[in-house]
Amino acid sequence: MPGGGSGGDPQQLALRAEVEFLPEAFDIKGREQKEATATLMGRTSYEAFSPVWPDMEDFADYKVMPKYVVSTILTEDNLASDWGETTILRSLDDVAALKETEGGPIIVHGSACLNQALSDAGLIDRYHLLVFPLLLGAGKRLFSAMDKDTQKLKLVEHEVYANGLQKNVFDVVR
Questions:
Q1: Is the pLDDT score of 11 beyond 70?
Q2: What is the distance, to the nearest Å, from the Cα of residue 154 to the centroid of all Cα atoms in its chain?
Q3: Would you list the DSSP string of the chain?
Q4: Angle formed by the axes of helices 92-99 and 112-120, nearest 10°
Q5: What is the per-residue pLDDT for 22?
Q6: From residue 44, how far is each of 40, 62, 119 by CA, in Å?
Q7: What is the per-residue burial (b if ≥16 Cβ within 10 Å, else e) of 42-60?
Q8: Long-range residue pairs from 153-162, CB within 8 A, at least 24 positions apart, any chain
Q9: How much is the pTM?
Q10: What are the pLDDT digits (tens) for 106-154?
Q11: Least buried of 19, 61, 95, 104, by fewest C-beta within 10 Å?
Q12: In this structure, what is the dihedral angle of CA atoms 160, 172, 30, 115, given to the nearest 10 degrees?
């Protein structure tokens, strides 16, 4: 259901059905597109987004920015031909090397397993979190269950909306 298709993930359906949509609560998503210089995703998210996002006006900025997909099994012939420059990265070491290059923020969408691995490897600098006033009872974890040291975060932006949704932007403290 990424990009607004029909059917799909029960969690996404619950969020849409249970929380009133307020456009201002999602302004951060447009800002992310404007601020990012590249997008990073795992294979599963790439395979979900690449057939839908290239033609969506809401995601037009992503079409022209470089995209990086972390996968050990995806091949060049599996890449979407209508979604601009896409590079396959084979490891977290490749992600770390990308992060050291010139350029600006790299945004990650979806990609639950990749986000967990990036966090565990210390490769995330900032979290943009939209917290919905719902307990779903099941679903994908935002963070891994890996036993590791506490990671301090600094709240740099916070807003609460009339529908109960909260925007929290945290910088990782190193």
A1: no
A2: 20
A3: -TTT-SS--HHHHHHHHHS---GGGGHHHHHHHHH-SEEEEEHHHHHHHTTTGGG-GGGHHHHHS-EEEE-SS--GGGS-TTS--EEEE-SHHHHHHHHTSSS--EEE-S-HHHHHHHHHTT---EEEEEE-S---SSS--SS---------EEEEEEEE-TTS-EEEEEEEP-
A4: 70
A5: 86
A6: 12, 17, 18
A7: bbbbbbbbbeebbeeeebe
A8: 153/127, 156/126, 161/22, 161/24, 161/25, 162/20, 162/22
A9: 0.86
A10: 999 888 899 999 999 999 999 999 998 988 788 888 888 888 889 999 9
A11: 104
A12: -110
How many angstroms separate the CA atoms of 99 and 91, rounded? Answer: 13
pLDDT digits (tens, 9 = 90+) for 35-66: 999 999 999 999 999 999 999 888 888 889 99
Dist. CA 141–CA 116, nearest whole Å = 8
Other beta carbons less than 10 A from residue 118's beta carbon:
20
